[in-house]
Amino acid sequence: MGKGLPYALGSRAWMARLNKLYLLYTLAFVSLVAVLGVLEQMGMPRSWIGFVFLIATIGVYAAIGLVCRTTDATEYYVAGRSVPAVYNGMATGADWMSAASFIGMAGTLYISGYTGLAFVLGWTGGYVLVALLLAPYLRKFGQFTIPDFLGERYGGHIPRLIGVVAVILVSFTYVVAQIYGVGLITSRLTGVAFELGVFLGLGGILVCSFLGGMRAVTWTQVAQYIVLIVAFLIPVMWLSIKQTSSPVPQLSYGYQLAQVGQLEQTLISDPKELEVQAIFAQRAKDLEAKLHNPASALRADRKAAQTLVASLKAAQAPLNERAAAERVLATMPRTLDGATSQWRAQLEVANTKMKPLNGMTPHAQPFAGDPDGSEQERDSFETSRRNFIALVFCLVFGTAALPHVLVRYYTTPSVRAARQSVTWSLFFILLLYLTAPALAVMVKYEIFNGLVGSSFDNLPAWVSAWSKVDPSLLSLTDINKDGLVQLNELSMGSDIIVLATPEIAGLPYVVSGLIAAGGLAAALSTADGLLLTVANALSHDLYYKLIDPTASTARRVTISKMLLLVVALAAAYVAAQKPADILFLVSAAFSLAASAFFPVLTLGIFWKRANSTGAILGMLSGLGMTIFYMATTHPWLRQAFGMQGEAQLWWGIQSISAGVFGVPVGFAVLVIASLLTPAPPLAVQRMVQRLRYAGPDL
What we know:
Blueprint: H1 11-41, H2 46-67, H3 73-78, H4 85-96, H5 99-112, H6 117-141, H7 146-154, H8 157-190, H9 194-209, H10 213-244, H11 249-268, H12 271-292, H13 294-314, H14 319-330, H15 336-353, H16 375-399, H17 403-406, H18 415-433, H19 436-451, H20 461-469, E1 474-476, E2 490-492, H21 497-504, H22 509-547, H23 553-576, H24 582-606, H25 612-633, H26 635-640, H27 659-676, H28 682-693
Antiparallel strand pairs: 1-2
Helix pairs in contact: 1-10, 1-22, 2-8, 2-9, 2-10, 2-22, 4-10, 4-18, 4-22, 5-19, 5-22, 6-16, 6-18, 7-8, 8-9, 8-22, 8-23, 8-24, 8-25, 9-22, 9-23, 10-11, 10-22, 11-19, 12-13, 12-15, 13-14, 16-24, 19-21, 21-22, 22-23, 24-25, 24-27, 25-27
């Protein structure tokens, strides 16, 4: 890693040195896992194992960050453009495989089954567009950031400024999700409160990117990729051996999917499950009645609670009964709006849990509903299929437009290396993505075959452990009072499926520490790239290009570091508020990126007639359409903006796929506005010509 040996001047020596360093690092990490496994068998406390993983991995990342510190602008912004294709692919894989990929994707596949494959298709398919349409041309353009390209291609300060705002919006939304994941993992590893875990993890993020910029982030991400892929593959392979005796989970996937299908049929007709579903159906009916006349219902509930407290006191009932009744009274909503919001949330839960399989679609069923069933079932099928296609669309085009991913291809030594780097990126990403569906099926098999039907008096330790981390992630209540666990009594968030896999499967705790370290590496690597992207956009594109073009290199880098700290603290504060689940936050970033950047980047490269007016109006209209649809349809955003009533979905498309409306609008407005206004200057058209055709590397 050193002081940046120029790739072109010593590629073989440079590669040999890198190969040796990272081979030793990999062997050291695997040895650490093996030693901790032996120490666990000898009685080492679990909390110590968690701390060792946390300290050892973050310590290595911090050491790389310190070794790679720099104030050189090219090193800080684009790692000296000397990163070999294979290592840039590995760093991109780590940058890409965020908390959503590592933590959220398998959990989404667990809950959604077939429809969750939209994430696998979208997140991998987008790299085809990156390779064909964007990466090589942006690398040939050079410079440091995506707004750099917008400023040069479209001229004037406004396209660059809009690009900066869009970069901040996309990256900040994405980084909040990563820091949320960091807090979740850190709190589980160390036992500290979630909010404290957020800020502890923040220290690990900053030490990697603060001193060395892209140079430090790149080589840290390579190290983080090794940790996260080892951490993901070992538990799944172990689980595959346990369930099928095969160490290759991808080959075990089909067999276990059939086993899960048989268990699903058993649970659908189980009398105890039907009993629990009936209880939730009645709850839904009662809640609908309350929402029909909320003021009267709130008065009745409060009066009933007060009467119960008074009667228990008069009868000198046991202290725990009185305390429970008083707690119910104390926690009742104090306002009509509060009561309405609470009842709507409870109604949503009840409407889900009154359905078979805890509201989940059978795992192998392509879409909800039935194309040959009743009218309602046909509508459900069509809506589900539309949402699947819309989500794939947003993820494909969002992948091809994420600023923190595209800027990685500025770091390669040549255009050809940029193309090769995309191929390596996809290879390293597929190692995880082809394993996640198998993990989801195997965890579902463990839940259906192990937890469901067990006694509440003998619950596994992981149930209470994860309930303490965050009850919204996992809760289990004996609804029908039979003392046995039914599937519909379990509430399990998608964000803990991967992290809890070792405990669910009964694997040694060292595997839990390993997978938490992998999740932490995934979240940290993406957070590093995102924070650096935001800070560089502010320092380079806003401060240097628009405010003070005479600023020295040292001053620009210093300002970038200061802004990095400010953005990181702001993102940590938002993440500590637990604004939404990881997957929604990440998917929102994809829709925003697709609508803001994909039309303006692709047309900027392939259509000389695209001009500044078209770019400005196209970015604003596409981004505005996406934000509008999200704000008016997503429950959390509707509540934040004080919107009342039911959300009006267009063609049933969920808010997670808002970009399906923003991208076409952005394209259409850009084209129409460009055609109605003068063509760009001849110099700009020649630049586009050179970008696309000139030079042997293309």
